[in-house]
Design brief:
This protein has helices at 52-80, 93-106, 110-127, 138-150, 161-180, 210-217, 224-234, 240-244, 278-281, 302-315, 327-338, 343-350, 355-373, and strands spanning 13-19, 25-33, 36-46, 251-253, 259-264, 271-276. With 379 residues, it is mainly alpha-helical. Helix 2 (93-106) runs antiparallel to helix 3.
Length: 379
């Protein structure tokens, strides 16, 4: 009779789940080898079982996930025993970048995941999708930098210096991860001098003064809903994505005269409870018969928005500033700080995850103060 094993063999790969905000469970593999732990998100999800069909669907999803797990265990064992040497050189670079975006989405870093997806968009425009990870070298990256310097964004606007630096940096970070995963030997970005990389520099925030906001309020706009939405944003600081998707059910009356917006921010996925001032509320239409799921503002496409905002601003006599919808958010922050709000409160009202993000507005206010005291002529 064979001697029984005293200990149960430990699985090198385990199937685990991660709870998502929508109630579903994301399936991923927990892989432990050579003293290192890594995770592979399968893009498979178990949904809440509300019907018999849901139960059947989840059973099929689990079957697929366990089949993938079995394949990974066999591949791992073959590699450890020298039967098969995986061809890491054949890994597609764009697919690897997509996996990084998925990883940060799963970890809750939605803003960074969006930056990775934006970089993927430009990488595909640059050299297409048929590029292997092993083909990403110094020449490829230098070409990508030149491409970022000459291309436009999704709406044919020139990329800002900050955007170019960000889209390059996420590639560098992904290549660092590839080195850590032993997919490539070295990061080719390390061969590029720092001065030759895109530099973000000091961000310049375009904002409106209170007098300029008043001028816009008294000037007609071709799209009245755009005028209302922009001025509403000037006094509440919501991003375009949040304003465009704002529905009446997200505006709550919390007392006789107090209202607030309660949303999950599109960019960060973080909840925001935002009190509405009288200045903000005056740009809301009457709800009347609108349902909770109806949009508060009927906005045109973002291309139309960015086309007509400068025209409206010019009609209002604002000719020395480039006006985009995001200027309303800068305006809100600068006005609050200028009229005495503390930076911590402003940070929370804007939905920033760090006060450091808000400090750039404080610098703008301080610079304005310095200019003001120097307006008095010398004696």
């Amino acid at each position: 009779m064979k001697k029984q094993l005293s200990k149960k063999a430990t699985e090198p790969i385990r199937l685990r789940t991660k709870q998502l905000s929508n109630g579903s469970l994301s399936l991923y593999l927990d892989i432990y080898r050579n003293g290192k732990r890594e995770y592979e998100f399968l893009k498979l999800y178990l949904i809440p079982e509300k019907t018999p069909f849901d139960k059947v669907q989840n059973a099929e999803t689990l079957k697929t996930a366990n089949a993938i797990k079995a394949q990974r265990i066999i591949a791992l064992q073959n590699e450890e025993h020298g039967f098969i040497v995986p061809s890491k050189a054949k890994i597609n670079f764009i697919d690897y970048m997509k996996s990084q975006s998925q990883y940060y989405d799963e970890k809750g870093g939605k803003a960074y995941a969006a930056s990775v997806r934006n970089s993927i968009y430009h990488l595909k425009k640059y050299r297409g999708e048929a590029i292997l990870l092993s083909q990403v070298d110094k020449a490829y990256l230098l070409g990508y930098i030149d491409f970022l310097n000459s291309t436009g964004g999704r709406y044919n606007k020139r990329l800002s210096e900050a955007a170019k630096a960000l889209y390059f940096d996420v590639v560098v970070i992904a290549l660092n991860k590839a080195v850590k995963d032993e997919l490539i030997a070295v990061n080719p970005a390390h061969k590029i001098n720092y001065k030759d990389r895109p530099q973000a520099g000091e961000a310049t925030k375009v904002y409106l003064t209170l007098d300029e906001v008043k001028a816009l309020a008294s000037t007609e706009c071709k799209y009245p809903q755009l005028k209302k939405a922009f001025l509403f944003a000037c006094f509440c600081g919501l991003r375009y994505s949040d304003i465009k998707n704002l529905v009446w059910g997200q505006i709550h009356q919390i007392s006789d005269e107090a209202y607030q917006v309660e949303i999950k921010q599109q960019k960060t996925g973080e909840p925001l409870y935002l009190p509405l001032s009288d200045n903000a509320r005056q740009w809301l239409s009457e709800k009347e018969s609108a349902k909770d799921e109806d949009f508060v503002f009927s906005l045109p496409h973002v291309c139309t928005v960015e086309k007509y905002l400068p025209i409206w601003a010019k009609d209002a006599g604002i000719t020395n500033k480039h006006i985009t919808f995001h200027v309303s958010r800068h305006t809100n922050a600068t006005l609050m700080l200028s009229y005495g709000a503390d930076i911590y409160t402003v940070s929370k009202l804007l939905g920033h995850t760090s006060v450091k993000t808000t400090q750039i507005y404080a610098k703008v206010v301080d610079e304005n103060k310095r200019k003001a005291v120097n307006l008095i002529p010398n004696i």
